[in-house]
Amino acid sequence: MIAKHLQDTTTLHNGIKMPWFGLGVFKVEEGAELVLAVKSAIKHGYRSIDTAAIYDNETSVGQGIHEAILENQISREDLFVTSKVWNADLGYESTLAAYETSLNKLGLDYLDLYLIHWPVEGKFKDAWRALETLYKDGRVKAIGVSNFQVHHIEELMKEATIKPMVNQVELHPQLTQKELIRFCKEQGIQIEAWSPLMQGQLLDHPILKEIADKHEKSIAQVILRWDLQHGIVTIPKSTKEHRILENSAVFDFELSKEDMARIDGLNQNHRVGPDPDNFDF
Questions:
Q1: Is 135 a catalytic residue?
Q2: Where does the record place the NADP-dependent oxidoreductase domain (predicted)?
Q3: How far is residue 171's CA from residue 173's CA, in Å, rounded to a whole number?
Q4: How many other CB atoms sit within 10 Å of the CB of residue 99?
Q5: Which residues contact 114 (CB under 8 A, 6 or more apart)?
Q6: HSE toward the beta carbon, residue 93, CA cutoff 13 A
Q7: What values do phi and psi take at 190, rounded to 5?
Q8: Is the C-alpha dihedral spanning 70, 72, 78, 83 positive or negative?
């Protein structure tokens, strides 16, 4: 099913509903700007907010969520909040402790989705056991991974009792991750794209501009629509209200098969972030 509305959801393999579209807050510092961005997103209909311990901004994200709930007369249950355990905390007890720290900073009783941020060899299995405990204890609605390649998931599943529900990875028209998407689809694992706009590096691409002009849309809107039509959850980052609103205006047009193929053809396996098989942090 292709999302038709900002609040449309995909159903994860455990039955939990996750919005197709959300707000990312990578590298946005704590403070009033972030609080306002979260509030603006929720005011304009966003229901998914994605943060992480390493972003060091969970307190402001939580403040924005709480103020938005009061101002928009919605409930916590209407929102889908994601955070991630950082590499330094990957271990059974340390992951459980990291979860509590994230909850306290956010001021929440539970998360909708908790992810292992990076596949640190020798550590991610213990962290996954902790996520399974949190899930079985009803402390988190869904659990998953981030930046995991096929072989990481296969290795994890040798000992895991619960399959990841989500894999959040760098994904954009120059890094289409076709093999990984195919594998995750076969396994019932929802793919979610971080850096869907390639940190702004695609916003003057001539082919994307041609497609955008044809649809009278921005290049960003075309890329985000491409995500959705491929069945990919997407979480573009912005702190500006007009951009938050513009990014979400992707439900009133459809890319043709030719458009989709042309965008697919831009793949260069080019990353703006670290390689999950070769990172050092």
A1: no
A2: 33-267
A3: 7
A4: 23
A5: 82, 83, 84, 85, 99, 102, 131, 134, 140, 142, 143, 144
A6: 0
A7: -75, 130
A8: negative
Q: Do residues 164 and 134 make contact, with C-beta atoms less than 8 angstroms apart? A: no
Assign 16 to helix, strand or coil: coil
Length of the chain, please? 281
Residues 6+ apart with CB under 8 A from 167: 144, 145, 146, 148, 153, 180, 184, 189, 190, 191, 192
pLDDT digits over 171-189, tens only? Answer: 999 999 999 999 999 999 9
3-state secondary structure of 159: coil
- How far is Cα 116 from Cα 182, in angstroms, rounded to an integer? 21
Given the residues 46, 55, 99, 135, the one annotated as active site:
55
DSSP code of 132?
A: H
Q: Partners of 234 in the beta sheet?
A: 21, 193
pTM of the model: 0.98
Domains along the chain with CATH numbers: 9-203+226-244 (3.20.20.100)
Assess contact for 49 and 38: CB atoms under 8 A.
yes
Q: Is 126 exposed, middle or buried (0-12, 13-18, 19+ CB in 10 A)?
A: middle
Residues (pLDDT < 70) of the chain are none
- Six token digits for residue 46: 């966003």
Residues in CB range of 248: below 8 A, 6 or more apart? 6, 21, 44, 45, 46
Say what the pLDDT of residue 67 is: 98
Other Cβ atoms less than 10 A from the Cβ of 252: the count is: 10
